[in-house]
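--- STAGE predict ---
source: upstream dedup step, 1 unique chain passed
mode: sequence only
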Amino acid sequence: MITSLPNLLTLSRIILIPVLLVLLYLDTPFFRWLVLGGYTVACLTDFFDGYLARHMNEISPLGRFLDPIADKLLVASLLIMLVHTDQIDGLVVVPALIILCREILVSGLREFLAEIKVTLPVSNLAKWKTLIQMLALGFLIVGSAGPTGFPTVEIGNIGLWIAAALTLITGYDYLAKGIKHMVSDEADKA
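--- STAGE serialize ---
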């Protein structure tokens, strides 16, 4: 049901994305901190929508559909806007691209596997990747508006590289599992 609390939390995350992007585009120290606050709320809704759905026994097809989309929309749009506003620049664009490409790959893989009734559960390493990615993006959102003398940008950049490395590992793991199902599906048809 669309009006269940978990689904409303997921929808609020999607609705918050354009607001965050506009504020990030305005690119003032005040708005960067405001975006960090909104981003933190979005990250918390990512945790609580699933938690509440399980504990309130309100897991729904709509929630299973919307939650990963909301996550990917949030991450992809923030990465693109951070590159656009030069808060991600130079070689740090590489881990941003790795993360974007992995999200597209895993989404396509999950869509294909859903057609043959196979699910890919989220691994513990993927959960760590998400946490590090969320923290790195938070530091990069604040960027140079961070406290004087505190290496906010450097922490964000290093975190993004670590998230990208974990992204490659988990992306490979998902792809290997997916290919195994694709090959076995082809063998069954032969």
